[in-house]
């Protein structure tokens, strides 16, 4: 008996998925039992890179999600609507779901997983984070013994590509973004990538799995890379750091009480970060992604690979399809979901505000070149309990003295208060950059 897939979308990921399903030889034998039943697209006139019988392709996506013959709906159309409604409709018709749509899951995950739980179907999303990198299943299964302490990832290929080129070529953000757009590495509207929103969607999903609770997306702190300048990249390099857009989810360093494990808070955030050049994430370059998971007792484990692309993302989609085919093949009853495949947590994780974060900072100041400026900066920081690792005048820019400060671990709220006071000092012209240090 063949398992029937209804594919919503035949773009980059849909095409890669169809190509694997049409060419199963030499892959997992179960793939030979999976068949593309119908494919939904927006336009029937487009030429396609994959050869499918024309009668399979339709613009009526509603008819796919309600087709009684379809076992698994694979949503690779993207966007919020109609993707959300189609997923919910498919669930209501008892279909299992595979999706690559981090944006929809990060926003409507609660609604979608509640509906799936009630209907006794699975929603699998390996391709939603890290493209081809298997990280969702390891978090659900292979790392199940661990108490996860943190997840730190480079999960957006576009920004990593831009930052890597800024570092190797010394160019400014705007110029390299424009070139990346020309070369097809950045979208015409790059907002979701360069403002960190895509990474925020992904870390919300990873945090939800790692810490077994739902995440409210608006509580994820998010800062993109538009403000990162060639000067900061160069100073970072001199100080032994590389600037990366990191997505981080970590438990606050508090003892967990066994009677109330939900009382803990998490930090979930996306921002450009100075990463020590010796850190494993510092060497992840170009469009590659990597996700470093720290757990007890395993220690650190890093997942690395292609974070996007037709073939790699389809590889992740197919792994979910295979898991579902295996469940269907072994005849597991619906309404009794396999606990290592499903996502059944209902409570929301408490997320601490960014002001509570304890981290090191790098800040660059432009000041008038007069005696005592470094002293007054030091005094302001001291007043707000910000202890400094180093404070140096590194040169001149536009007739202003350029001073770089690196702090020890400080509470972000205290650091921001010190900066507010520093901004009022007459000698201070501006603070062109503030970066957290890993
Ligand atoms: N591209 C990647 O490398 C990658 C990596 C990881 C995750 N993802 C995720 O995978 C999903 C798909 O991405 P993609 O890059 O494959 O997108 P894409 O190339 O733009 O393809 C989207 C497909 O969906 C169809 N579609 C979109 N809206 C539709 C609508 N309203 N009605 C009917 N058909 C519609 C399009 O039809 P037409 O072909 O007729 O226009 C197209 O075939 C997204 O959620 C994305 O975030 C992508």
Structure description:
The longest helix has 20 residues. β1, α1 and β2 form a beta-alpha-beta unit. α4 packs parallel to α9. Strands 7, 8, 9, 10, 11, 12, 13, 14, 15, 16, 17 and 18 form a 12-stranded mixed beta sheet that branches. The chain has a 6-stranded parallel beta sheet with strand order 3-2-1-4-5-6, with helices on both faces. The chain is built from 13 helices and 18 strands. 33% of the residues lie in helices and 27% in strands. It is α/β, with parallel strands linked by helices and 438 residues long. The site of NADP nicotinamide-adenine-dinucleotide phosphate has 25 residues, from α1.
Task: Present the secondary structure layout.
Layout: E1 3-8, H1 12-22, E2 34-40, E3 57-58, H2 61-65, E4 72-75, H3 83-92, E5 96-99, H4 102-119, E6 123-124, H5 136-142, E7 147-154, H6 157-169, H7 173-183, H8 191-194, H9 197-210, E8 221-222, H10 230-239, E9 241-251, E10 265-276, E11 288-296, E12 299-306, H11 310-329, E13 350-351, E14 358-367, H12 373-383, E15 388-397, E16 400-407, E17 410-411, H13 412-423, E18 428-437
Parallel strand pairs: 1-2, 1-4, 2-3, 4-5, 5-6, 8-10, 10-13, 10-18
Antiparallel strand pairs: 7-9, 7-11, 9-10, 11-12, 14-16, 14-17, 14-18, 15-16
Helix pairs in contact: 1-11, 3-4, 4-9, 6-7, 12-13
The structure holds NADP nicotinamide-adenine-dinucleotide phosphate.
């Amino acid at each position: 008996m063949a398992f029937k897939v209804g594919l919503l979308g035949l773009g980059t990921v849909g095409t890669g998925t169809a190509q694997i399903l049409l060419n199963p030889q030499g892959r997992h034998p179960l793939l030979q039992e999976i068949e593309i039943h119908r494919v939904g697209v927006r336009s029937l006139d487009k030429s396609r890179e994959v050869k499918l019988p024309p009668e399979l392709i339709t613009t009526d996506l509603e008819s796919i999600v309600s087709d009684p013959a379809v076992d698994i709906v694979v949503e690779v159309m993207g966007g919020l609507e109609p993707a959300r409604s189609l997923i919910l409709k498919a669930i209501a018709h008892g279909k299992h779901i595979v999706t690559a749509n981090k944006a929809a899951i990060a926003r409507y995950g609660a609604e979608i997983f509640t509906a799936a739980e009630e209907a006794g179907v699975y929603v699998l999303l390996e391709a939603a984070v890290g493209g081809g990198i298997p990280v969702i299943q390891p978090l659900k299964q292979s790392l199940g013994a661990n108490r996860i302490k943190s997840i730190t990832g480079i999960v957006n290929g576009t920004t990593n590509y831009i930052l890597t080129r800024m570092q190797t070529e010394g160019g400014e953000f705007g110029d390299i973004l424009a070139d990346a757009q020309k070369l097809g590495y950045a979208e015409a509207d790059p907002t979701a990538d360069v403002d960190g929103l895509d990474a925020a969607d992904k870390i919300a999903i990873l945090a939800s799995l790692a810490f077994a609770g739902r995440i409210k997306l608006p509580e994820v702190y998010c800062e993109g890379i538009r403000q990162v300048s060639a000067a900061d990249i160069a100073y970072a390099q001199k100080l032994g750091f590389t600037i990366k857009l990191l997505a981080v989810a970590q438990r606050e360093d508090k003892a967990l009480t066994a009677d109330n494990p939900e009382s803990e808070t998490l930090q979930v955030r996306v921002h450009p970060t100075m990463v020590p050049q010796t850190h494993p994430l510092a060497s992840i370059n170009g469009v590659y992604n990597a996700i470093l998971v720290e757990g007890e007792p395993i220690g650190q484990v890093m997942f690395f690979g292609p974070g996007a692309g037709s073939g790699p993302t389809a590889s992740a989609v197919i792994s979910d399809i295979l898991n579902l085919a295996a469940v269907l093949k072994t005849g597991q009853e619906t309404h009794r979901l396999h606990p290592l495949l499903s996502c059944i947590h209902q409570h929301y994780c408490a997320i601490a505000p960014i002001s509570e974060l304890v981290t090191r900072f790098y800040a660059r100041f432009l000041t008038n070149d007069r005696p005592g400026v470094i002293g007054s900066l030091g005094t302001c920081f001291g007043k707000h309990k910000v202890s400094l690792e180093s404070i140096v005048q590194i040169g001149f820019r536009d007739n202003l003295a350029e001073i770089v400060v690196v702090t020890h671990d400080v509470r972000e709220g205290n650091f921001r208060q010190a900066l507010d006071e520093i901004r009022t000092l007459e000698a201070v012209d501006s603070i062109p950059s503030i970066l957290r240090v890993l």
